[in-house]
Amino acid sequence: MLRTSDSTDRAVTPATEEHPEPPADRAPARLLAQRGLFFGPSALVPEDLYSVVERGTARRERDRVVLAPGSRVSTNTYFGRFHATYWQRWTDIGEVEVSAVATGTGRLRLMASDTNKVWRIVAAVDVQQGEATPVRLVGPVDRFVDGGGMWIEIATETGELTVSDVRWTVTGARPVPPTDIAITTHNRVDDCLNTLQALARDPEALERIRTVHVADQGSDPLESRERFGEIAAALGERLRYVRQPNLGGAGGFARGMLHSTEGAPDRHADVLLMDDDVLLEPELLIRLTSFSAATRHPMIVGAQMLNLLHPGHLHISAEYADPEQLLMGLKVPGALREAYLLGVDERQLPINQERRVDTEYNGWWSCLIPAAVIREVGYPLPLFLQWDDIEYGYRARAQGFPTVSLPGAGVWHADFGWKDGDEWQRYFTVRNGLIMAALHSGFSIRRITKRLAELIAHQLVAMQYGMTATLLQAVEDFLEGPDVLRDGSASALARVREIRKAYPETVMHPMSEAGGEFHDRPVIRAANEPGSETLTFLKRVAYQIGGRSAYRTGSVPAGDAHWWHVSLFERAIVTDMSEQGFRVRNRDKQVAFQLARRSALLLRRFVREAPAVAARYRTELPRHSSRENWERLYGVEN
């Protein structure tokens, strides 16, 4: 390991140039696109995401499966499929070859599906009393433009069969470029160490990686743990460890990107950005780097997110954003969202992303960005967190570099649905969303102002006064212009946390403090959604101004904490979305009036000043996303 505290030193291994043609004596005969795995990296994830025992019995292990007589195993699963539609759309491979080692008696089939999930047999081979028999199946990748994939089916009748070392390979037009992993971490020591350990335990996947760059921004450093030394020894010279001030996810990832693209272009590496708190499937290193190496032109290749608390669920397979509405993570039509990958559809066929759906960006829970893209697009904006990955994806897209979210390349990440919206992070959601709108939308003042007014109004009647103050501070800081980013948003973090201290309902109380709050208060569920939100809102305002309420007090489950329900209470004990505690909201007409007056004045200012401010953000984008700006923030000499 090399530990660096004040530099962005590169590893010494030279990188290849942007998509070059390799010399004839160096070109790999085949490119390993993915390994055939029958079991996950941990017993914490369902093995049926990898392979399914459809008949009989089988013993599934990581890289092999043993079938009893009269059994059938299929890899028509999330991790088991070769997602041919994405390979045909974005690469020039003509076929895929599946190789394996079979011992015993049975049959292997290479299967394929159409856009509507109708299966067909592409190739088949029988093994008769084989002893470590090499098996080879080849399928053309020529009928998958709109959708479809491939998988293997293994079956036995009277004998037992063991299949191992399954490998999906394609023609290797060029070698896989050197790739650096960039991990940013902040006081999630055990999670980050688990991720590093998972990398170290898969040597074949790790061979794709030049360096593992860790930017530690926390007050509880990784290096303080004994386990860190063991992992560092296992990773050896691949590991680069950097301590730096907390500049958020953007600051951590940008440090890794600077590291991977330092020096002359022929020494650059692609960079695989990765969150610290994921449950890692090391196989994604192979799948992302192989796909990226095979694409016709450089593009961003993202891994998909599966939910950590509910590991059988896919968060989303393709998404887009609407910054003028401050909305991210919107589902592209035809994509899967919160899909149960172990379930079946109405035809009793597996749930998977059969039809190809193209995304507009990919989250940085795990995302591969080629060095060629970084050279053209630049580095992230110092937004601290929220929207930094989205902004970069749209900026790259505008410069001709699309993004693909590759099915079958996934990591487990903390479920978004279990994060409460009333947190300090909401400041960055709003401020950075406005910056995103300024840079990558028509910046409709009417549409944005209407959205801001709606958010403020709903928060006020729902007694979320601290949330309202958070939003107002975000808008005010946006109007300060690009200089608000000058310190990497570090001061904004401290400022918003201080602001929120004045509002008691922003505090989540643990259940140990519940006392009679839960025992003595009735749980009051929400009724149906209002037929007219406008009329319902006006009615709630009238009631609150008149000091009336439907309920003096009561408990509200997290899933029922809609503004139109909580606004019926004088005092509401609301379960936090994390299900780890509760918040207490008390009606305060004086505070509500003060915030409402401040909101009206601010929105008038926004209408007047925002167009010119948006133009300044567009002008300053190259400077704030430059290498020089990030080196200044890190205190690194050129």
Automatic annotation (TrEMBL):
Composition skew (Basic and acidic residues), residue ranges: 16-26
Domain of life of the source: Bacteria
Domain Galactofuranosyltransferase GlfT2 N-terminal, chain residue ranges per copy: 58-169
Family: Belongs to the glycosyltransferase 2 family.
Name of the protein in question: Glycosyltransferase
Pfam name, any one: Glyco_tranf_2_3
SUPFAM superfamilies according to UniProt: Nucleotide-diphospho-sugar transferases (SSF53448)
Pathway where this protein functions: Cell wall biogenesis; cell wall polysaccharide biosynthesis
UniProt keyword annotation of Glycosyltransferase present: yes
Region (Disordered): 1-26
Keyword line: Glycosyltransferase, Transferase
Residue intervals of the Galactofuranosyltransferase-2 C-terminal domain: 456-634
